[in-house]
Design brief:
single chain; 146 residues; mainly alpha; 76% helix
Length: 146
């Protein structure tokens, strides 16, 4: 017995000697009996707790554990699928961005061609496809009598 609650053998002997001097021989026997009963009671409680804990652990159905493991595996698979989907989002966005950029370039080129046509012919076309008149038309104002 190296240490009992942080009290070594020399300290324990000293405590017993002081207790013997203070309590006397008759009361030391009673204190030792009480301490022995208390120790036995604590050991009995400890054994009962350990027995009950082992019984509860054994009572757990291994089927429940298997079901929990299967649920965890299913969640793991779903997380992997979700990661794959999230990883594919930037690729899809880049593809969509490229398509939109090509469409915008085509529209700009079409508008440039129409503007060049207007510049070379000197007048605006009646209406651009899908747009309102490109340039404002001159207004006819009545002559001012003054």
């Amino acid at each position: 017995m190296d240490s009992f609650f942080g009290v070594g053998l020399p300290e324990l002997i000293m405590i017993l000697l002081v207790a013997g001097l203070l309590l006397g021989p008759q009361r030391i026997r009673q204190a030792a009996r009480t301490l022995g009963r208390l120790t036995a009671q604590l050991q009995r409680i400890s054994r009962e707790f350990r027995r009950q804990l082992n019984t509860e652990l054994d009572a757990l159905d291994s089927g429940e554990l298997r079901g929990a493991v299967q649920d965890m595996q299913e969640l793991k698979r779903q997380m992997a699928d979700l990661r794959r989907e999230v990883a594919s989002i930037p690729k899809e966005l880049n593809k969509e961005r490229s398509t939109l950029a090509e469409e915008a370039r085509a529209l700009v080129q079409e508008q440039d061609a129409l503007v060049q046509k207007q510049i070379t012919t000197g007048h605006a076309p009646a209406a651009l496809p899908g747009h309102q008149d490109f340039l404002p038309q001159p207004l006819k104002v009545a002559d001012d009598p003054d």
